[in-house]
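ok so i was messing around last nite and threw this chain in just to see what happens. nothing serious, just curious
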Amino acid sequence: MDLVIVAGGKGTRLGLEDIPKPMVRIAGKPLLEYQISLARGYGINNIYILSGYRSEAIVDYFGDGGAFGVKIRHVVEKSPLGTAGAVKQLEDKIYDRFMVFYGDVVLEVDLESFMEFDNAAPSIASIIVHPNDHPYDSDLLDINDNSIVTGFYPKPHNANEFHRNLVNAAVYILSPKIFKYISHGGETDFGRDIFPLVLKSGEKLRAYKTAEYIKDMGTVERLEKTSDDFIGGKVERSSKRHKHPAVFFDRDGTIVENVDLLHKADDLKLFPFSSEAIKKINNSGYLSFLITNQPVAARNLCDISTIKEIHNKLETMLGKEGAYLNDIYFCPHHPDRGYPGENPDLKIDCDCRKPKTGMISRAVKEYNVDIELSWFIGDMTSDIQTGKNAGMKTILVRTGKGGQDGKFEASPDYIFDNIKDAADFILDKKK
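result:
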């Protein structure tokens, strides 16, 4: 597979004058060199670098790529073309699926896993997506349960609408069919122009979710942060090649106030300490997941789309405080039949309803979670039993039911007043 690196950025916000943004140095090397090294590690040796501003700095440093173990072809734009317009220049040079990096992004991604995902089903493109800590000023997108992109939602967002915290991470695998959607001349952007057009035309876009490190270093503050993360090893450790500890949270009575059979987004109320607790987890090296039983769908109190709307509101509320969940897993089933108005299709004995561990198993598979170093936090004995069944350490919180549900004889490893105290304990214990 060929790699295309879009490297035309000026770096104005970084105060760069003599070099383009992708040539900014991190730990002594240009960012582009790290991207090339990452690709080479996965057998991607044929690389196109699309540059513009101060392109001679890139051409002089990398040459034909021989010194870096790859073959590099340079394509220099005469005027700014945008991310998609720059790639359009390769229309008569690439005839198979190819990968795209943006040259101003610090990344550490298991590209083999990404390519396997891309090969698993047909599409015009696979794009990497992830949550971030500022969805309120980000262009968002949504996907269905089969990882198919269903919509794009550019900023600014309507205050009365709630969208999933999923952001285009600027790493793609594209079919050469994409070229026909990109016009000649003028600036066009993949996220703003091409992907929405492709979706509207009926083409299939697939989204690969990951918790790996992918960050734009376009401001001085972001450059300092990404440089520190790189030097401190956080970037390398983020790779899906490594197992990651996680904190699994229950929802009702744990992150949000307990409302019996919550089935309306208007009734969702976040505990005042939840965002701070989850933000601490986000910054710690632990992944964060929501694991919740939602039998309101089986009872026909609402449909699954409403449950997702509730979760979109939850993600929006957390995002306003700079916090995010790496993923949300919910079980809509209920095993008991015979209730008036129930949805018979969801009245099944599934493997995902807590205290069974099907939802946790999905997270482990999708994110390479280290169960032995992970925690489950909840307000009910069913949460504690779930954590124990999965082989995790468990924490009961006194919010919500406070362990008084009496469903299981399950004793937690620890008890705290709320998830903030629980998060503080987990992070202190990690030190």
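not much to say yet. The longest strand covers residues 167-174.
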